Amino acid sequence: MALNPFIWDRPLDDPSKIVGMTRSLRTHAWLRSPCRRLTLTGLAVAAGLLWFAIPSVAAGVVGMWSRSAPITPATGVAATDEAVCASSRLCFADDGSGDITALAQPASAARSEQLVASLAGELDVETASLQCPTTTFCAAVGGFYGDNGYDAPQLFVSTTPSAGATSWRSYDLTEGLTQLACPSASFCAGVTADGRLATSTDPARGSSAWTPTTLGAALKLVDCPSSSVCLALDQSGRVWTSTDPTGGAGAWGQSGAPALHVASGGGAGGGAVLACAGVSVCVAAASTPGDVLVSGDPLGAGTWTQIDVAGSTPVKAVTCETDRGTPLCLAGDTTGGIATSTDPAAGASSWALVSADADRRIRTLSCSGPTCVAADGAHTALVATVPDASSWHWMPISESDRDSLVAVSCPTTTECIAPNSSVYFSSSDPAGSARSWRGRRQTDQFGDGDGDTLDSSCASPTLCLAVVVDQGLYDTSGGDLFTYDPVGGAHGFREVSAVIDPLYVACAQRTCVSGGGGDWFQTADPGRAASWKRVAHPRFDVTCLPRRGCVGLPDGPFLGTAGPDLATAAGARGPWRLTAIDPGQEITGLACPSANRCVAVDQTGHVLTSTDPTGGAGAWRVVDVDPNGLVSLSCPSVALCVAVDGNSSVLVVAQRREKGR
C-alpha cells in the first residue's frame, strides 16, 4: 500500500489548466557517454553529485480533496448521507430526509449550492440510494413516515432534478427498494426488501415500469456498469452476473467465483460496497478491515483478490468509473481516508491513500470525469479534481539517433528553445505541432566545432544562457557559460568568463545561478559579466509571490542533495524552511507563473501543482505525465507550459479558450 501525504485543500477548477515549471536535474547525454564519464569522475565527486535510479510512485493518486461548507443550506439540521455527480460540473447531495441540494461547479472556486427539492410534506420522509447518471435524470428510493409509523415505500424521480421540488415526483411501490443502480436514464436496477431483483427501462415512468425477478438466492445489492451488464451479490456473498439484465431469471447466473466476504453496509443509508468500471474491473469492500476485493474479470469464475488499501481501518464505500478512458476506483474508510487507483487489480502498491476527512466515515463516493465527491454524514461534502495526464500532449522534435534534449526554456509564449547537445530547437508556436520546431546546429562556441551543450535557461525574452563544454579538452573540470539571443533561434553566443567551470544554469525572476563544477555563482543581471558573484548556498528557481512569500529548491538539485523538499520563506533572505512535498522522489524543477500557480516536477515524470505553494505538503497534488521522466520544463505564462522528457520529445499543456469566450 502506498501512503500519499498530499491532502489537497484548494481545488483547481479545471485539471487541463495545469501550468508552470522551469529547470530540472539533467542526466545529460554528455555525462552518460562512457568516455566522458571517465573524464568527469573526479568532477562529480568534488561537486557532490549523486546519480541514482528513482523508483516509480504508486499510480492513481486523486487530487485535491477539500472540505466544503455545509450543503444543507435550508435548515442545516440533517446530515449529508449521499453525494453523487451527474457530470463534472453538477453534483447532488441527499440528507436522507428528503432535502436534495444541487452543487454546481463543485470543484471550482465559483461553486454554488442550492436546495432544489424538499420531498417531505406532512409526512416525514427517508431517502437513500440517490442515483443521477445524467444532469437530466435522478432517482432515489425511500418511504413516508407518519405519526403511526411507516406509511408507504416510495420511488422518487426527476427528469429536471435541479429545477426545484415541483420537478420531482414520488411513486408508491408495492414493495420497497433498498438500493438502486442506474447507469443511464433509460435503465435502472434495484434490490427489493425481500431480496428480489427489480429492473426498469423507463424508470421515470414510475412503479408500473418496474419488473421484479426472483433469482435463486436473496440478493444484497446490485451494480450495473452499463445498461447491458450487471453484477449482484446475494446474501451469502455469491456473485451473480448478466449481460441481459432485463431478460428475466434465465438471463442471470452465478459467476462461479468463490463467495465474497464483503463489508456490512450498502443499500439504504449506506455507501455502495460493490462498484465496477465497465467489465474490466470490479471492486468490493471486504469484511476484513482495510481491505478491498478486486477482480479483473468480474464476469468470470476467478477468485477475487484481497488487497490492503487502508491499513486496519474498515472500508465502507467504493466507487469506480471509466469516464476518463481508464478505470478509476476509490475506496473510503471509516476515519476519512480515501484510497484511489487507476489499476486496482495490480496490488497494494497501485493504491494511494489520502487522509481526506479526519475521523469521519466516508459514507458515499461518486465520480464523473475529473470530478469526485464524497459524503461524510456530517453536513459536509468533500470534492476532488482528478489530475488528468491527457491534458498533456507530446511530440518528438529530434531524431531518435541524436542526443536527448537537455533543457527547455520559453522566455515568451511565442519563443521556446530546447537544445540537445549539438542542436538548438526553437519554436514560435510551441503548442502547435512538431513541425513548428526548427533545429539549428550550434557546436562552434569555441571556434573548433566541438561545443557540446549541457544546459540552458532564459533570463528574459532577449537573453538566454547555456553551459557548453569543449569536447576537444577532455581534462576540463567543467564547461563554460555563454549568453545568447533566443529571438529567431539561438545565435550571438558570448562567453561569461566570470563563471568558472559550470555544469548547470537556472534562471527565475531574472535571478540566475550557475556552477556545479566547483564554485557556484549568482546574479540578478546575467547579461553583465561583472555582476556574477560566488555564493555558498545557492537556491534554484526561487520565486517570490505577492503576499505569499518565496519558494525555491534548497541547495540544488545539483549538489547531491536533490530530494523531496521545497524551500519556503517569508522573504527572499529567509529564514528558509523545508517541506517534503514529493516523498521518495527527486524534485527536478519548480516554477510559479503567477501568484497562485506553482508547479514542481520530478525525474520520474510526475507533475506537482499547487494554488497555495507555501501552504505545506497538503497544498500540492500530483499527476503522472510521462514515463520517460521530465528533464526540463518552462512556463512563460499560466496559459502555457512546455516540457522535455528523456526521450527527445516535447510535452505541452496549454489552456484553450472555450467557444464564445
Describe this structure in words.
With 661 residues, this protein is mainly β. The chain has two domains: 314 residues, Neuraminidase (6 Propeller); 324 residues, YVTN repeat-like/Quinoprotein amine dehydrogenase (Methylamine Dehydrogenase, Chain H, 7 Propeller). 3% of the residues lie in helices and 46% in strands. It contains three helices and 53 strands. It starts with a strand and ends in a 7-residue tail after the last strand. The N terminus and C terminus are likely disordered.
Number of helices: 3
End-to-end separation in angstroms reads 44 Å
**Strand elements, count:** 53
CATH fold-level name of the largest domain: Methylamine Dehydrogenase, Chain H
Q: Whole-number average pLDDT?
A: 76
Strand order of the biggest β-sheet: 1-26-25-24-23
Please state the second-level CATH architecture of the largest domain.
Answer: 7 Propeller
Q: Based on helices, strands and strand pairing, what is the structural class?
A: mainly beta
Which CATH C-level class of the largest domain is it?
Mainly Beta
Low-confidence stretches: 1-64, 67-78, 556-561, 655-661
Largest sheet entry = 5 strands, mixed
- Gyration radius (Cα, Å) is 29 Å
